[in-house]
Specification:
With 405 residues, the protein is an alpha/beta fold. It is built from 15 helices and eight strands. The protein is 50% helix and 13% strand.
Length: 405
């Protein structure tokens, strides 16, 4: 009997110290990582202080069964809160500072530690009669944790009703962008959280660009913190899926949206903005959809040709055949433009074009390629095949077979 009792005591003590080590390790790690987080969030510091306090109290009262009931309730509350984050589809719970931890992992950890604390409480109390009370308390704590999540979290971006980019354009700061036509400059609006350190480098570069090119005829940069966006246009900070973000406006409409790693270089956007004769052509109502195109598809091949040029007509026949075969294609669209017609309508003479014919490759309203003369005319069939198979856009190079015929 004494041996059995000693064995039970040894198991109870082993369980106690394993649980103590696990809880102190989990709370200590979370507290330290919150304390050194780059965000300098006051709530992180308060939470870290609370976790250090719990560690101190548990070390002092670790042999008391009621202390472990409290620990179990605490982790049950954590589990309820984390379950709420899992249901929302959050990528990290923020429990470990800047370390991105999947909420599913944290939820498993919280549930495991809550169960472990409950077992220690039962063994220290020396009675199984408290199990029902512990389970009830854990359930209430989990509900409180989930309720705290509901009350303290903003709605999901998907719950925002309306087009964020269109609503943002009502801000007084963007009045010029809202009333611009297709011949005016584009506006790149950079949205950021001023309290997020990761935007600092990009913000400095864009601020310098905005100052240097304040009167640029092709692209102007506007920096807008999310609190300003909310104050001027009523778009709350939680409505943006990821920050930093950027929106490119052209002709009073949003034509491109960017987030985080896809943020564009303003100088590249300026270099690819249609200018000269092609800008006038694409500003015509029947071609405006090319400039207003959102996203990278389809790719437009704008073929500007001279009807008096025999080789131009040969290429035109191939392009017409492609258009007949692939009408309204989602990958590559050919738009033939007669130089004679443009001269009659806009007064642009044939000699003003870079070559006869001239072909522009336009993607997302940006000129990403151009050929002058009958050589190296892009092949719409090849472009369509590459894009349909997920390959990058390839343009013809000297020495290669890039002709349309």
């Amino acid at each position: 009997m004494r041996a059995a009792g000693a064995s039970r005591t040894l198991l109870a003590d082993t369980l106690l110290y394993v649980a103590l080590l696990a809880v102190v390790g989990a709370l200590g790690t979370a507290a330290v990582l919150k304390s050194i987080a780059a965000s300098e969030d006051l709530l992180h510091y308060l939470a870290a202080a609370g976790e250090f306090l719990v560690i101190g109290l548990l070390i002092f009262f670790h042999r008391r069964w009621w202390a472990w009931v409290g620990v179990g309730a605490l982790f049950a509350a954590f589990a309820g809160y984390t379950a709420f984050l899992v249901a929302r589809g959050e990528s990290s719970c923020g429990c470990f500072g800047d370390v991105q931890t999947p909420p599913t992992f944290t939820l498993s950890l919280d549930i495991g530690l809550a169960i472990l604390a409950g077992l220690v409480a039962a063994t220290r109390a020396g009675s199984a009669s408290i199990v029902g009370g512990v389970l009830t308390l854990a359930g209430v704590a989990a509900a409180v944790g989930a309720g705290f999540g509901v009350l303290t979290h903003d709605p999901l971006p998907t719950e925002y009703k309306g087009d964020r980019a269109a609503v943002l354009l009502t801000a007084p700061t963007l009045a010029e962008a809202a009333h611009a036509d297709l011949t005016g400059p584009d506006t790149l609006v950079y949205l950021y959280d001023p309290g997020t350190a990761e935007t600092d480098e990009t913000l400095a570069l864009l601020r310098a660009d905005a100052k240097q090119h304040a009167d640029d005829a092709t692209l102007r940069v506007v920096l807008m913190p999310v609190d300003q966006a909310e104050a001027e246009a009523g778009v709350p900070a939680w409505a943006w899926e990821r920050l930093p973000a950027a929106i490119l406006y052209r002709g009073g409409r949003a034509v491109q949206r960017y987030v985080a790693q896809t943020l564009p270089d303003p100088q590249t956007l300026r270099a690819q903005r249609p200018v000269g004769p092609i800008a006038q052509v694409l500003s015509l109502p029947e071609h405006a959809d090319i400039l207003y195109a959102e996203g990278d598809l389809p790719v437009y091949l704008v073929y500007v040709y001279n009807p008096d040029c025999p080789i131009c007509l040969q290429h035109l026949a191939v392009f017409d055949e492609y258009s007949d075969e692939w009408p309204d294609d989602p990958y590559a669209v050919v738009t033939p433009v007669s130089m004679h017609e443009i001269e009659d309508r806009l007064g642009i003479q044939i000699w003003a074009w870079p070559g006869i014919p001239t072909t522009y490759v336009v993607r997302g309203g940006r000129v990403v390629g151009q050929t002058a003369g009958p050589e190296l005319i892009p092949n719409p069939y090849q472009i369509r095949q590459d894009l349909a198979m997920g390959r990058p856009l390839r343009l013809p190079e000297p020495g290669g077979d890039g002709h349309a015929h």
